[in-house]
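Data's thin. Show one?
=====
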Amino acid sequence: MTGRRILTMILIAAMATGASTRARADAGDFAAGLIGGAIVGALVNEAARGNTAGRPPQGNAGPRRLVPSDAVHATQTALNRFGFNAGTPDGLPGPSTRAAFQRYQRHVGYEPTRTMPALQRQFLISVDALAGQGGAEVTRRLDRLGGDRASLLLSYMADPVDAVLPTPEMVNTSAMQRALNRMGYEAGPVDGAMGPSTRGAIARWRADAGSPAHGAPGPQERVDIIADYRRTLARAQGVVARPPAQPQASGQKPPQPGSAAQGDGSASAGGAETGGAATTRLEWRSPESGRMRERLERFYNSDYIDIHGRSIDWGEPPLRIATADLDGDRGNPAIFVLWRDSAYCGARLCQMHIWNWQGGPDGGDYARIGDFLHEGEISLAAGRSEGMRDIRLGETLMRWNGASYSRAAPGRSSADGVGAGSDAGADPAK
């Protein structure tokens, strides 16, 4: 009987009996608490309702005192054991816990959130339980990873076992939509509705996976989509099914933009040839002008203070920027932000954000239109899609679909001019 079937049976029993077991700091007692079922049962219920820990009380009943939660206590304990420092576990989702959870999210490649999504906590707690129980399989992984416990998270994302996968009940339609969107399958707005865009995204995912299934996704497919999404995040962090023979040592700083491991695309902005299509490399620099720094502080300072307890230090800026004209508005070029701060970087790659001007000459503001993990050279490709320049992240071509940048169909070059509004013949230097 597989680990997931055992876990599901225990979960059903726990939900029937209403059992509740406080997770202990000790690994053995914690594993017993998990097997008791209350923690996983609570996460299943949260996922089914679309709830996340850390959300403020709703309704008009006035201020309510937060009650310690076994699931939050287990989350805090796991965060501490993986080195994300949530403070003393107390079962309450306070600022220290949320900041630690964001560090975990960045480490594995999730988009940081102000809440703690149930599926992400399920994975964290499940891997922690396995690590606490030990065994030959965990020992082999740790040996390959140089003993770095935090790297186990990426290892189990890249190469999961049944015990770390969610139950089908936890994977609602919204969770699938988020996963499909982040993988580039364009499921549309995350609204929890199984509409045409979501069905089309599932069909494209099935085609890539070689699945003959059709219609609404079954229970196993729901789990498979989440597992595939986690593998995609791990690959973006440079982790594949078999962990690398020489992993990054624990505590080592993330690779810096411009290092040999990443490449910085810092050549002059002249045309280059990549994959047969003319490209324009971005020029990365430190933000030096007061106006640019003010913009970046407006974009990021609130979250940066939440994480570090201080404002951005411009004496040693934790990011680099590049500017480029994406849509013909030369007066307000797009701003590319490449982080080199540990809070915005995983084991191998760092986050890159794109901000573009939204509005007319009489008013408007910058909006974030792209979030990526830096995988090498970043450049502007020759073509346009829906009026916006195509972008290359390493060898991956990204096209604007009218709302966001997403992965281009395999085998298409930037000069193909596919899609409504494409103007691939435009001057690539614009």
Q: What stands out?
A: The chain has two domains: 3-57+66-236, 271-416. The chain has a mean pLDDT of 74. The chain is about 35% helix and 15% strand.
